[in-house]
Structure formats: structure tokens, C-alpha cells
């Protein structure tokens, strides 16, 4: 069948057909082709032969669900989480761990195929670095608060509906985050503290965020609320301190907006410190509520180790730690660098970064509040040029203005730590005239999910 004919193939809603699954797609779904049209099937695995039913038809792709598995993958396994199907927070629990690691490398390959013109046969794309025990790895939970049968609950909104799934034992979370959230909900119910304002028809306590220091055992609780005033706030704080001695910091963050962003701009200390401490190898980090910190501390050491390897410092380099958060990567690289400059848009993160450098006796690192796209051109204009640049941007990738400055400043090495292979691929493509990709190293920061983290080493041509 030629291409024109294949485009004329009509796929109808509820239509059923057999499908062989070829790959895992970027969102963790199985990917197959029906008469050359791409079909996404959540829950299906590579190598499987399934019968699917079409659930949605789009101009360029089709969504379908598994009706029957005719031939199952030998890597299919039973997902241990009781709310796996409803929750949607994890996408790959039904795939054995080695299969997940392979799938993540393949997702990276798919992104490079899609967004670059690189010859993939010539690229060194390494096997994904996994975890020994890929459970209970998350140091932070962000559970939404709601009500069910008149009682407060905390959990995640289902991927496919607006329903809040009550979660009291999430198996990818550190047990302390589960314990703390469950106990706070118990306190709210014990004292009948309202989480929803019936009159105003709005949520009062929106989200309970807990972050634990794996090495220190310290826990911070952030109560995200729509306004400053919360009924029985003092009682709630007092009970949390009484029942949960591991909680060393309780803060309130006010976010009146209805957005997907958890935090608003205002944070108030309610009890204890403003931050908690965490240790990774020999470094101690101070973490404020809004400051970014990697979610999987065990893999973070491996990730930063890879960043350090790729930076290949000799002691003489001026290094930029762009999108630095609390300064973690820069500190990791500090003993090999002559000078380090880091920047981040979150002021609390930069405040923490300065404290962290001081605590680690690193005197040759400076941290600045501001965006990478504003500060890099400014430094260039002032005549300050780095030899090595490490970036770790959010999912949207690097700003073009920042990458344009990199092309002009021409650091010898550009180390790209990425949490989104699509934007990584686009940015690599944008830099390809100036930079050669030496290798790409995926690291599994989020077992059981389809998220892929990669360290890419680029060198100046
Ligand atoms: C993925 S985190 C990386 C943080 C840090 N490197 C680490 O490993 O913990 C991305 C960071 O980029 C910051 N950020 C977002 N947009 C930025 C921008 N345009 N310029 C600088 N930093 C930015 C965020 O505040 C966040 O701390």
C-alpha cells in the first residue's frame, strides 16, 4: 500500500483490531501500527500481540485500549500497587525493571530520531543506569487534599478523570513521607478541621507537601492553602509537632491561583526551621520549601557523578552551573574547578546554594538570582567566559537566547543534564554546528514511571 492510500485508511471509534506492540512511547504507552497509522495503547508492552479497541481518533494518531492480550511479553509482571490503574502516577509498574531501563533508552532514541538529523548509528547511547531497589525512592510527596464521604483524604488526581484517589501508602515514596501525610490527614479528621469552605465553594488546604532528608531523617511539611487564614491552624501545627517529632519544619505556602503549579509566591514559617538538611556523599544541603532538589537522592549521586565525569575538569576551568537550584551540581564539581558560577530564578534556592557552599567550605563558587538567558549574555559582555558549562534546565529545555550565547562564548565542554529527552534532542540539534555529541547516558531517576533523565556530553567542534 502506498502512502496516499494509507492516509485514506479510516479508523473508527470503538473499532477493534489486532496489533503488535513495537515500542514504549514517551508517556509509557505501548506503540503499534495499524495499516501504517500509529496507535498508542496504555498498558501494552513491546513484543506483545494484543487486540485493541479504539478510544479516540486524532488526525495523526489513534488511542486505543487493550481488549485482550493474545501473546504477553515475558517481561510483563503484576503491578504491586493496589491503585496503579486508577492513579496514573506510575506508568511502568507492569514491566519488569530491566525492561523499564531498556524502554527508557529507547524513548531517548525516539526523541533523537524525531527531533534531530543526527546519524544515530554513530551515536554512543549508553545503557540506562538503574537502581538496586527501585521502590520507595521519592523524597518528596505532593498530595492533593479533598473530601470523600465527609472525611478529608489526600492523594493524586486520576490521570483520566477528575477523581481524587485516596493514597495512604504510595510504594515509590519514602515511607516517612507516607507516614507524615497520613498522620496529618488523621489530625484534620480527628479535630474536624475543614479543608473545604462550603460557603465560598473553595478549597482551604489544597496540598500537603512533605520532603524528607534520606540521610538526616529530617522532614519538612508545607501546607499549601488558598489563603493565609486557615481554621484551627495553631491546633493543626501543635498536633503535627506533637505526633510527628521527625517534622523539624512546618511552613505554609499561599497559592490562591487555580494553576497546575503547586506553590504560590508567599511562604510563612509556622513552626521550627525554614528548611531541612540533606546529605549526599560528603555534601550537606540546606533545602527550603520552594527550592528544587532532585527527587531520588540515591540516583542523584550517580547522576551528578556522570555530570562530573562528562565535565572532565582538570582544576583550571571556569565552570557555569546553569539552572543550579540549591547549587548541588556545582558543589559536586567544585574540587575540579578553578571557579564556579551558578544561577537560578528562585531566590530561596540561591540563598540555600550560598549557605551550602559555605558549609562545604567551597570558597570559589558564586551564586546569582536570575535567568540563564539573562545572566550568560551579561557575563559575556563583562568579559567573563566559562570553559565548561553544565545545564540542568526544567522540562521546557534551554532558552534560545541562552543557547545563542553558548554558541558565541564557545565553552570547550557543554554538559546537558536533562529531564525531558524531547527538549534535549531539540537543543542538541540547535547546537549541532558548534558541538559534537560525545555520548548520552540515561540515568533512571524515576523507576516505575516513563520519565527519562539523561546526561549528554557535548564538546566544541
Ligand atoms: C531541574 S532543576 C535543576 C536544579 C539543580 N541543578 C539540581 O540538580 O538540583 C531546574 C532548575 O531551573 C530553575 N530555572 C527554571 N527556569 C530557569 C531559567 N530560565 N534560568 C535559570 N534557572 C531556571 C528552577 O528554579 C530549578 O531550580
UniProtKB/TrEMBL annotation:
Biological processes per GO annotation: rRNA base methylation
Pfam families recorded: TRAM (PF01938), tRNA_U5-meth_tr (PF05958)
Record bears the keyword Iron: yes
CDD domains xref list: AdoMet_MTases (cd02440)
Catalytic residues in the record: 419 (nucleophile), 419
InterPro entries: MeTrfase_TrmA_AS (IPR030390), MeTrfase_TrmA_CS (IPR030391), NA-bd_OB-fold (IPR012340), SAM-dependent_MTases_sf (IPR029063), TRAM_dom (IPR002792), U5_MeTrfase_fam (IPR010280)
Keyword annotations from UniProtKB, A to Z: 4Fe-4S, Iron, Iron-sulfur, Metal-binding, Methyltransferase, S-adenosyl-L-methionine, Transferase
Residues noted as binding S-adenosyl-L-methionine in the record, renumbered to the chain: 294, 323, 344, 392
Entry's Gene Ontology molecular function annotations: 4 iron, 4 sulfur cluster binding; rRNA (uridine-C5-)-methyltransferase activity
Residues in TRAM domain copies: 10-68
Family listed: Belongs to the class I-like SAM-binding methyltransferase superfamily. RNA M5U methyltransferase family.
Name by which UniProt lists this protein: RNA methyltransferase
Source species: Rossellomorea marisflavi
Amino acid at each position: 500500500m502506498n502512502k496516499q492510500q494509507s492516509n485514506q485508511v479510516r479508523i473508527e471509534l470503538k473499532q477493534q483490531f489486532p496489533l503488535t506492540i513495537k515500542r514504549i512511547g514517551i508517556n509509557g504507552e505501548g506503540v503499534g501500527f495499524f495499516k501504517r497509522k500509529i496507535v498508542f495503547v496504555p498498558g501494552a508492552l513491546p513484543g506483545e500481540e494484543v487486540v485493541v479497541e479504539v478510544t479516540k481518533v486524532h488526525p495523526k494518531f489513534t488511542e486505543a485500549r487493550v481488549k485482550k492480550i493474545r501473546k504477553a511479553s515475558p517481561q510483563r509482571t503484576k503491578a504491586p500497587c493496589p491503585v496503579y490503574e486508577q492513579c496514573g502516577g506510575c506508568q511502568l509498574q507492569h514491566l519488569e525493571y530491566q525492561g523499564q531501563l531498556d524502554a527508557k533508552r529507547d524513548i531517548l532514541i525516539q526523541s533523537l530520531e524525531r527531533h534531530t538529523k543526527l546519524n544515530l548509528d554513530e551515536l554512543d547511547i549508553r545503557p540506562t543506569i538503574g537502581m538496586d531497589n527501585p521502590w520507595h525512592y521519592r523524597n518528596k510527596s505532593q498530595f492533593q487534599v479533598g473530601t470523600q464521604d465527609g472525611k478529608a483524604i489526600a492523594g493524586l488526581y486520576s490521570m483520566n478523570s477528575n477523581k481524587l484517589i485516596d493514597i495512604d501508602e504510595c510504594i515509590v515514596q519514602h515511607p516517612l513521607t507516607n507516614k507524615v501525610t497520613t498522620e496529618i490527614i488523621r489530625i484534620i479528621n480527628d479535630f474536624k478541621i475543614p479543608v473545604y469552605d462550603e460557603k465560598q465553594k473553595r478549597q482551604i488546604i489544597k496540598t500537603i507537601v512533605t520532603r524528607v532528608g534520606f540521610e538526616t531523617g529530617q522532614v519538612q511539611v508545607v501546607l499549601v492553602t488558598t489563603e493565609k487564614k486557615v481554621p484551627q491552624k495553631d491546633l493543626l501545627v501543635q498536633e503535627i509537632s506533637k505526633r510527628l517529632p521527625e517534622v523539624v519544619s512546618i511552613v505554609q505556602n499561599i497559592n490562591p491561583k487555580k494553576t497546575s503549579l503547586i506553590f504560590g509566591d508567599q511562604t510563612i514559617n509556622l513552626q521550627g526551621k525554614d528548611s531541612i538538611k540533606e546529605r549526599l556523599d560528603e555534601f550537606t544541603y540546606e533545602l527550603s520549601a520552594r527550592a528544587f532538589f532532585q527527587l531520588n537522592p540515591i540516583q542523584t549521586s550517580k547522576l551528578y557523578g556522570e555530570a562530573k565525569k562528562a565535565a572532565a575538569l582538570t582544576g583550571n576551568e571556569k565552570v557555569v552551573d546553569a539552572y543550579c537550584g540549591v547549587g548541588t551540581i556545582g558543589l559536586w564539581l567544585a574540587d575540579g574547578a578553578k571557579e564556579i558560577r551558578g544561577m537560578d530564578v528562585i531566590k530561596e534556592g540561591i540563598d540555600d546554594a550560598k549557605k551550602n557552599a559555605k558549609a562545604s567550605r567551597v570558597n570559589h563558587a558564586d551564586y546569582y538570582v536570575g535567568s540563564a538567558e539573562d545572566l550568560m549574555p551579561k557575563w559575556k559582555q563583562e568579559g567573563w567566559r566559562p570553559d565548561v558549562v553544565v545545564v540542568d534546565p526544567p522540562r521546557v529545555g534551554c532558552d534560545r537566547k541562552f543557547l545563542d550565547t553558548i554558541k558565541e562564548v564557545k565553552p570547550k565542554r557543554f554538559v546537558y543534564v536533562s529531564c525531558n529527552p524531547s527538549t534535549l534532542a531539540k537543543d542538541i540539534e540547535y547546537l549541532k554546528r558548534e558541538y559534537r555529541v560525545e555520548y548520552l547516558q540515561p540515568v533512571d531517576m524515576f523507576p516505575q514511571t516513563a520519565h527519562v533523565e539523561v546526561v549528554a556530553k557535548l564538546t566544541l567542534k
